[in-house]
């Protein structure tokens, strides 16, 4: 379980995240919504150590993530699908997936894991030898997701997985998130597509210019008047 | 009907064996707003790249106001009147917001190097005229307060708007917008929709819009053309497109198949 | 406008100072640093010897050394700086011809006598305040051609030189001209881009194929020793190889036999027992430098200091810079690098010694007197 | 937008006065004999370095293209000027020294400029490290060609001998004239950078694709910048030739070019002030280090590494010094942005046209 | 006629002799460039450091009764140490705070530092290296081929294959590729970016020591400046082959060596003496320029086209 307390992050003079606290319980889907520049990506980046925190604490299953070296975090069972996918463009689809298993000491499960991912994303199986850089945006998103799954995570941070995807792919991606959830994986989901995000999440936080302004049951927030006006374009 | 702003005939391009776009036909009249949609990798951005001279078509031709544009370099196409925004935002990051717009006004300046070096009255006059025009333009997008901010420091939404403002400053007849609402939430998208309507009314230009956000596309486009694997699979009025079974299966996805997708 | 080149009328005299200050401008960093370093070692040895034996006219000598990086601007600045210090009575250096060429007019304008130990280019002569201790390029090329024709009696000669280096190309071209005059057949004229290439096999192979009996390869010891000579032997060329004074200190690598039939013209012979100065120079250098051997540039630097000594002694305790210049002009000098007289352009007329490598050791072969 | 206490045009006048005062000081110290030939020589060297660095800054800092061949153009300018000067004398053309100096220097600049265009058109199709290496290559080719030209060796013209230093060049460079050439260079570069041309160039630096999509002819602008840089490098070369009086092909080498690149980066890319200060600073630094004699270059390289580690954006970043601003700050101290430390940021967003670089 | 052919072949081997050394050096450039996009200008000077270590250790190694070439072991150790220290002390802080250009200047400054530093320690003069190994030359009829050339070429090919296998098939190699493509994503995979970069530097610097050995076998002399021109040529080789590409570095080095050699041998004859062998360097650069204009990413480099 992930527990963030009083976290603040700044880029030089810009305070991107101001004293936020949030938690994600095992097996939950928690959604983090907010306008552009609210600090969502920054929050996720701080959790996995890509950006240093100014103050606060991030506890994950007994590990103080802010004190850990960032490349070790994945070994605790946390995977992060970054904003903008960040696939390794000059590696093939399969190599990308194999990179996902980099942190595993033992790679005997590799072929089973690959089969699992290919089962989830049959399209990737067809394209396993293609360089990831030449894939379409949606296919790259699948690679990013599959790659994260390869590290046997129990918790996945997802940053705008639906960005730039066709409506059909968006539906597919959300279906997969639900399926992961059903398998017991914990998900912290950042989304612009607030409607979809809130409809599959258990709980949600609303981030506004670096601060959490609302939190609660996702379905309730979905019907909250303020949220509807600000994020759902009602 | 008089000569349309844009007429594309059988445009196509191949990347090392891959036909990214083929037999692309389209006409856009003055003041029209046309949508271009299709699955990821269908070739939409590639169409924009063809229309702006980033890539040269391997087949077909296209005309702006009846003038053939094949073989023209990007800057020539832009000067002739086609401007665009980019799917991955491309601003002049280390320049201020106002400078970003002024760069696009470059062709409207007539002072020459000598004028610049000797700071002639013409230099001063044009610089101050352009400054005024730039601020006017920024005002449409509520960006005038940020005129002296470095573009890199703008919030994402503002960056998207600045890209549009910059494109407008080239003084084009046809504006190509590539996923302007990507990464925006529905409320911000609505704000953008208003902006698009404003500029179309105010400048009387034609717009070609790529977008995956159906609420935007269906609301603002007069006609929509759908690409899949580089080919046009449908084109028509928004309602027709929304109900076209081929479009639904390739692009929109049916509302009830979300669960079946993952199983196959 | 400001006249940059006003002369300093109020130049000091020797009597104004309790010590005699000599400035030096040499190349101590960059690609040619090795030569400058060797010269400075020569200066230092001479200065300490002179000071130990009572100085010049009873005064100790002080050396002010400056590095020019082999760069003309740096050399000019360093020279001007020393020229501005009124106690500096003369300059040793610069090291290489290009910086010397830039400094030569400054010496005249500052009326500051300068002795360049090893700048060999023909073109730097002014006949004013700049003098040198070494032969000039054309002179050595001519001597070598004469030697090939008269002493070795070869017919087919070849030449290899670096166009990028004024020394190498200056000597090489002079050789070609003289060789043609001497009736030799120049069967191959090969070039390298610079004088510090490492690979010459291609050109050498052509020299070999052209059937040359004698190869003139004017380079420095650093290129000739480890590269040119072994590579020439490796492509099967077994004829004579001759070089200029740059060969002094030739470094032998690998099989010593490869260096047989290698000759060079130089200023002095280490095994020349007739010149006591040579032996004294070599032993005291070895003593001061942990047994390391001096090379030509050290010897030339060493002599240059003694040239100043002789001139200052002649000019007397009240001499100004201009008086010292007068004393150097046309002087006859006898030092480690031979007995010579400076001509009206400031270059020495020297006898040339030809050394031949035998079993890895340079041995005396003959002395060629300057044409009168 | 921050209001300036002095109008733009007034500020230009202030800068002009500043330059004239500086010149007065220079003339004062020179005429009264307060400075030695050595110091004059260093000032001359600084002027040459300032011209080289500020013009190179246009390509590297403003256009954002790394070139390692600037000394090739300097050498072309130097050799052309030297040979042209000899040609004039050989043909018995009599003219005032200063006129001849200016004439041949500009001729050197023009020849370099022509080569700039010829080399720029193909080279500028490449970017980044590839452009750097191709310009380095052109520099080396220029060096080798000069080295093998008969006319560029020995005494030049008919007496030329390849591979030799070109000597006997009339040393007509006069410090006062060179000072004004330097001022004019800086002013021209400043005016260029602060105009629609400069804006277009900066746009290309930030994003080429977006720049062409804004109607800018990238190739034309790049070649223009390259040609301007080459022109001033040629001017610097012409001055160099007529100051030193002797030229060798090695001046075109890449190591020399890298020296100027170091100056540009060290000063802060895109900052004219930075270029000027670092050109002067890095010219003087090795002179100051003469005290360390043998370890001079070692100390120099250590200083360079340390500065890059602790100040990687260069000493000035992209900040510009502005005399009018400094005056405003002194005489109208109520302006809120008076803190020295924050001056950089405040200036960067301030009224652009008042930024004037003045050299110290 | 036969003579001409033998001459031609031996000219090619003359080119391979220096070319194979360029290749070894270029491999080091390419490794480092491939991962952090930095032209490590000091790489040529690592060779110089390696050569000095050889010079100092060979007598001791021989005194121990071991073959002289074993002194490559201390050379590798010292070069790796120097490479890693340079990376940690200078490049890393600059990479984190500055941009490409400042990193490049730091590399140049580092190169100056190593050159002037070793001059301060060893003096500026050239020093010879004792014979390391006598590799007999091979004679095929009239054709004599230098043994060291063959060994260097073979060694280059072996190293190239080993590197290629390492980079594409081992975990560490994949980590290198991942870091070179996307550092953030690499961290998320659990890759220690800093140690990966350090490892790359260590490999590159170790290669420099091997290159020193092969260089000193053919060209037995050291001086503080020896790395400058060698480094530049090797860098040109790496760019010609396509910087970042391991086989490209190998091919680039050999091509440059052979072009140099053939130019020196034939250009004068072909152009009737108008262009002499002194133009060899210019012709090498000319070829580089033409290749880059035709194929901007070098002979074997991957095109880096930006998708709009
Ligand atoms: N590397 C950076 N340097 C400086 N400021 C940054 C940086 N990254 C983000 N910011 C700023 O921090 C704030 C929060 O950004 P962040 O990317 O976390 O927002 P977000 O909620 O993910 O927005 P979006 O929906 O656009 O992805 C913004 O104001 C942004 O401009
Ligand atoms: N320069 C290129 N080289 C090779 N293939 C290319 C290039 N540009 C585009 N493609 C290919 O052309 C196809 C169409 O790409 P395009 O970017 O036009 O898609 P799109 O419709 O804009 O998709 P999306 O909605 O994801 O942006 C893709 O398969 C892409 O990989
Ligand atoms: C010291 C030597 C390298 C100088 C050389 N003879 C020259 O004239 O350049
Ligand atoms: Mg984000
Ligand atoms: Mg697209």
UniProtKB/TrEMBL annotation, chain A:
GO MF terms held by the record: ATP binding; ATP hydrolysis activity; branched-chain amino acid transmembrane transporter activity
Domain ABC transporter residue range list: 2-234
Entry's Gene Ontology BP terms: L-amino acid transport
Gene3D superfamilies the UniProt entry points to: P-loop containing nucleotide triphosphate hydrolases (3.40.50.300)
Keyword list, A-Z: Amino-acid transport, ATP-binding, Nucleotide-binding, Transport
Transmembrane regions listed in the UniProt entry: none
One Pfam family per UniProt: ABC_tran
PROSITE patterns recorded: ABC_TRANSPORTER_1, ABC_TRANSPORTER_2
Family recorded in the similarity comment: Belongs to the ABC transporter superfamily.
Name of the protein described by the UniProt record: ABC transporter ATP-binding protein
From TrEMBL, chain B:
Molecular-function annotations in GO: ATP binding; ATP hydrolysis activity; L-isoleucine transmembrane transporter activity; L-phenylalanine transmembrane transporter activity; L-valine transmembrane transporter activity
ABC transporter domain mapped to chain residues: 6-254
Record flagged with keyword Glycosyltransferase: no
GO cellular component: plasma membrane
Gene3D superfamilies found in the cross-reference section: P-loop containing nucleotide triphosphate hydrolases (3.40.50.300)
One Pfam family here: ABC_tran
GO BP, one annotated term: L-isoleucine import across plasma membrane
Keyword Transport applies: yes
Domain of life the protein comes from: Bacteria
UniProt keyword annotations, A-Z: ATP-binding, Nucleotide-binding, Transport
Protein name as annotated: ABC superfamily ATP binding cassette transporter, ABC protein
Provenance organism: Bifidobacterium erythrocebi
Automatic annotation (TrEMBL), chain D:
Keywords: Cell membrane, Membrane, Transmembrane, Transmembrane helix
GO molecular function (one): branched-chain amino acid transmembrane transporter activity
Membrane-spanning intervals of the chain: 12-29, 41-64, 76-95, 101-121, 173-193, 223-246, 258-285, 297-316
GO CC annotations on file: plasma membrane
Pfam family, one: BPD_transp_2
Keyword Cell membrane included in the entry's annotation: yes
Cell division found in the keyword field: no
Region (Disordered): 337-360
Location of this chain's protein in the cell: Cell membrane
Bilayer topology term: Multi-pass membrane protein
PANTHER family recorded: HIGH-AFFINITY BRANCHED-CHAIN AMINO ACID TRANSPORT PROTEIN BRAE (PTHR30482:SF10), HIGH-AFFINITY BRANCHED-CHAIN AMINO ACID TRANSPORT SYSTEM PERMEASE (PTHR30482)
Record protein name field: Branched-chain amino acid ABC transporter permease
Annotated source species: Bifidobacterium erythrocebi
Upper lineage: Bacteria, Bacillati, Actinomycetota, Actinomycetes, Bifidobacteriales
From TrEMBL, chain E:
Membrane topology: Multi-pass membrane protein
Gene Ontology BP, a term: L-isoleucine import across plasma membrane
Localisation: Cell membrane
TM ranges: 20-39, 68-86, 98-114, 147-167, 187-215, 235-259, 266-294
Protein's UniProt keywords contain Cell inner membrane: yes
One cellular-component annotation, GO: plasma membrane
Keywords: Amino-acid transport, Cell inner membrane, Cell membrane, Membrane, Transmembrane, Transmembrane helix, Transport
GO molecular function, one term: L-leucine transmembrane transporter activity
Similarity comment text for this entry: Belongs to the binding-protein-dependent transport system permease family. LivHM subfamily.
This protein's name: ABC transporter permease
Organism: Bifidobacterium erythrocebi
């Amino acid at each position: 379980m992930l527990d963030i307390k009083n976290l603040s992050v700044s880029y030089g003079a810009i305070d991107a995240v101001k004293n936020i606290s949030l938690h994600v319980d095992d097996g939950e889907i928690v959604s983090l919504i907010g306008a552009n520049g609210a600090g969502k990506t920054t929050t996720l980046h701080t959790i996995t150590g890509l950006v240093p925190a100014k103050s606060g604490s991030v506890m994950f299953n007994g590990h103080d993530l802010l004190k850990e070296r960032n490349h070790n975090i994945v070994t605790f069972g946390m995977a992060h699908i970054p904003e903008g996918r960040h696939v390794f463009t000059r590696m093939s689809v399969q190599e990308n997936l194999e990179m996902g298993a980099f942190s595993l000491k033992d790679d005997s499960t590799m072929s089973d894991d690959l089969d699992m991912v290919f089962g989830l994303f049959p399209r990737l199986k067809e394209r396993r030898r293609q360089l990831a850089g030449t894939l379409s945006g949606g296919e790259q998103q699948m690679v990013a997701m599959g790659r994260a799954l390869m590290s046997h995570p129990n918790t996945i941070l997802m940053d705008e997985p639906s960005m730039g995807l066709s409506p059909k792919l968006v539906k597919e991606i959300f279906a997969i998130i639900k399926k992961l959830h059903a398998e017991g994986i914990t998900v912290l989901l950042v989304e612009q597509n607030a409607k979809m995000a809130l409809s599959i999440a258990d709980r949600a936080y609303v981030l506004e210019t670096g601060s959490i302004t609302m939190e609660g049951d996702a379905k309730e927030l979905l019907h909250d008047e303020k949220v509807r006006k600000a994020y759902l374009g009602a | 009907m008089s000569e349309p702003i844009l007429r594309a005939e059988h445009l196509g391009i191949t990347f090392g064996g891959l036909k990214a776009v083929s037999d692309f036909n389209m006409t856009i009249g003055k003041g029209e707003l046309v949508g271009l949609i299709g699955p990821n990798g269908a070739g939409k951005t590639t169409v924009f790249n063809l229309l702006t001279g980033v890539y040269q078509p391997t087949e077909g031709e296209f005309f702006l106001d009846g003038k053939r544009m094949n073989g023209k370099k990007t800057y020539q196409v832009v000067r002739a009147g086609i401007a665009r925004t980019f799917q991955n935002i491309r601003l002049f990051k280390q320049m201020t917001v106002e400078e970003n717009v002024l760069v696009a006004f470059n062709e409207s300046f007539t002072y020459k190097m000598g004028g610049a070096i000797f700071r002639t009255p013409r230099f001063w006059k044009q610089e101050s005229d352009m400054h005024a025009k730039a601020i006017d333009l920024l005002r449409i997008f509520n960006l005038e307060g940020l005129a002296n901010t470095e573009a890199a420091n703008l919030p994402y939404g503002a960056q998207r708007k600045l890209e549009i403002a910059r494109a407008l400053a080239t003084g084009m007849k046809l504006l190509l917008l590539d996923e302007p609402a990507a990464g925006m939430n529905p409320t911000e998208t609505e704000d953008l929709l208003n902006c698009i309507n404003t500029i179309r009314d105010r400048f009387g230009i034609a717009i070609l819009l790529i977008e995956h956000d159906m609420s935007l596309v269906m609301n603002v486009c007069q006609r929509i053309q759908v690409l899949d694997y580089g080919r046009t699979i449908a084109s028509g009025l928004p309602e027709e497109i929304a109900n076209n079974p081929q479009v639904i299966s390739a692009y929109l996805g049916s509302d009830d198949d979300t669960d079946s997708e993952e199983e196959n | 406008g400001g006249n940059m080149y006003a002369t300093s009328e109020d130049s000091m005299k020797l009597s104004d100072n309790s010590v005699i200050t000599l400035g030096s401008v040499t190349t101590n960093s960059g690609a040619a640093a090795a030569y400058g370093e060797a010269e400075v070692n020569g200066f230092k040895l001479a200065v300490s010897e002179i000071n130990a034996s009572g100085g010049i006219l009873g005064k100790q000598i002080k050396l002010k050394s400056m590095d020019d990086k082999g760069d003309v601007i740096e050399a000019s600045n360093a020279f001007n700086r020393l020229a501005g210090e009124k106690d500096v009575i003369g300059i040793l250096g610069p090291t290489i011809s290009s910086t010397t060429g830039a400094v030569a007019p400054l010496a005249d304008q500052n009326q500051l006598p300068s002795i360049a130990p090893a700048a060999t280019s023909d073109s730097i002569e002014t006949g004013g305040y700049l003098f040198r201790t070494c032969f000039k390029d054309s002179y050595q090329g001519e001597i070598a051609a004469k030697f090939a024709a008269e002493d070795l009696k070869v017919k087919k000669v070849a030449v290899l030189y670096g166009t990028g280096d004024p020394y190498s190309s200056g000597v090489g071209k002079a050789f070609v001209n003289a060789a043609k005059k001497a009736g030799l057949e120049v069967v191959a004229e090969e070039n390298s881009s610079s004088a510090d290439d490492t690979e010459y096999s291609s050109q050498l192979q052509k020299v070999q194929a052209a059937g040359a009996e004698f190869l003139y390869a004017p380079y420095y010891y650093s290129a000739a020793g480890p590269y040119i000579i072994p590579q020439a032997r490796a492509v099967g060329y077994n004829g004579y190889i001759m070089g200029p004074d740059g060969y002094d200190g030739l470094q032998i690598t690998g099989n010593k036999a490869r260096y047989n039939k290698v000759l060079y013209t130089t200023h002095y012979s280490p095994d020349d027992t007739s010149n006591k100065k040579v032996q004294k120079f070599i032993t005291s250098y070895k003593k001061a430098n942990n047994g390391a051997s001096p090379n030509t540039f050290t010897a030339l630097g060493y002599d240059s200091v003694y040239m100043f000594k002789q001139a200052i002694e002649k000019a007397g305790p009240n001499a100004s810079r201009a008086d010292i210049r007068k004393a150097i002009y046309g002087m006859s000098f006898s030092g480690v690098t031979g007995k010579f007289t400076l001509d009206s352009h400031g270059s020495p007329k020297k006898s040339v010694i030809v050394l031949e490598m035998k079993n890895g050791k340079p041995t005396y072969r003959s002395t060629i007197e300057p044409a009168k | 937008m921050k209001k300036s206490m002095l109008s733009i045009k007034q500020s230009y006048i202030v800068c002009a006065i500043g330059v004239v005062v500086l010149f007065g000081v220079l003339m004062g110290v020179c005429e009264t004999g307060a400075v030695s030939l050595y110091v004059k020589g260093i000032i001359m060297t600084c002027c040459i370095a300032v011209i080289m660095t500020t013009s190179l800054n246009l390509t590297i800092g403003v256009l954002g293209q790394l070139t390692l061949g600037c000394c090739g153009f300097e050498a072309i300018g130097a050799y052309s000027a030297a040979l042209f000067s000899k040609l004039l004398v050989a043909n018995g053309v009599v003219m005032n020294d200063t006129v001849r100096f200016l004439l041949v220097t500009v001729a050197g600049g023009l020849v370099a400029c022509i080569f700039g265009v010829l080399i720029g058109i193909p080279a500028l199709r490449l970017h980044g490290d590839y452009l750097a290496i191709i310009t380095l290559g052109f520099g080396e080719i220029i060096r080798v060609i000069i080295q093998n030209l008969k006319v560029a060796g020995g005494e030049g013209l008919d007496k030329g001998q390849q591979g030799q230093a070109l000597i006997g060049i009339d040393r007509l460079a006069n410090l006062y004239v060179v000072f004004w050439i330097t001022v004019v260079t800086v002013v021209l570069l400043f005016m260029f950078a602060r105009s629609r041309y400069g804006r277009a160039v900066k746009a290309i630096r930030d994003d080429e694709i977006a720049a062409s999509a804004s109607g800018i002819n990238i190739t034309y602008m790049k070649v223009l910048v390259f040609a301007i840089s080459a022109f001033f490098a040629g001017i610097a070369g012409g001055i160099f030739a007529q100051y030193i009086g002797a030229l060798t092909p090695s001046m075109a080498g890449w190591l020399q070019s890298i020296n100027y690149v170091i100056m540009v980066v060290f000063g802060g890319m895109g900052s004219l002030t930075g270029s000027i200060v670092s050109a002067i600073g890095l010219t003087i630094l090795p002179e100051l280090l003469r005290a360390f004699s043998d370890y001079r270059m070692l100390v120099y390289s250590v200083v360079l590494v340390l500065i890059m580690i602790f100040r990687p954006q260069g000493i000035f970043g992209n900040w510009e010094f502005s005399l009018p601003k400094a005056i405003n700050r002194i005489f109208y101290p109520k302006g809120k942005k008076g803190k020295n430390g924050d001056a950089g940021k405040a200036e960067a967003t301030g009224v652009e046209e008042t930024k004037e670089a003045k050299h110290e | 006629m036969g003579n001409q052919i033998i001459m031609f072949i031996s000219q090619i081997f003359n080119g391979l002799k220096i070319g194979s050394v360029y290749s070894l050096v270029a491999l080091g450039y390419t490794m480092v460039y491939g991962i952090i996009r930095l032209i490590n200008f000091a790489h040529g000077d690592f060779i110089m450091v390696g050569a000095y270590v050889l010079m100092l250790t060979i007598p001791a190694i021989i005194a121990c009764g071991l073959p002289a070439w074993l002194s490559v072991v201390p050379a590798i150790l010292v070069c790796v140490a120097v490479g890693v220290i340079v990376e940690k002390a200078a490049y890393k802080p600059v990479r984190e705070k500055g941009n490409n250009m400042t990193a490049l200047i730091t590399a140049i400054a580092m190169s100056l530092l190593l050159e002037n530093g070793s001059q301060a320690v060893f003096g500026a003069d050239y020093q010879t290296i004792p014979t390391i190994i006598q590799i007999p030359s091979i004679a095929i009829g009239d054709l004599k081929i230098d043994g060291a050339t063959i060994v260097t070429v073979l060694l280059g090919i072996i190293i190239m294959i080993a590197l290629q296998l390492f980079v594409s098939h081992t975990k560490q190699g994949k980590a290198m590729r991942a870091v070179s493509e996307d550092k953030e994503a690499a961290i998320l995979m659990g890759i220690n970016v800093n140690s990966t970069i350090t490892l790359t530097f260590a490999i590159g610097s170790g290669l420099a020591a091997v290159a020193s050995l092969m260089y000193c076998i053919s060209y037995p002399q050291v001086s503080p400046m020896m790395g400058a021109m060698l480094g530049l040529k090797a860098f040109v080789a790496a760019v010609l082959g396509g910087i970042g590409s391991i086989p490209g570095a190998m091919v680039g080095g050999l091509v440059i060596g052979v072009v140099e050699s053939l130019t020196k041998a034939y250009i004068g004859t072909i152009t009737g003496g108008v262009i002499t062998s002194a133009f060899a360097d210019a012709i090498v650069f000319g070829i580089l320029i033409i290749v880059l204009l035709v194929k901007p990413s070098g002979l074997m480099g991957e095109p880096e086209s930006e998708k709009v």
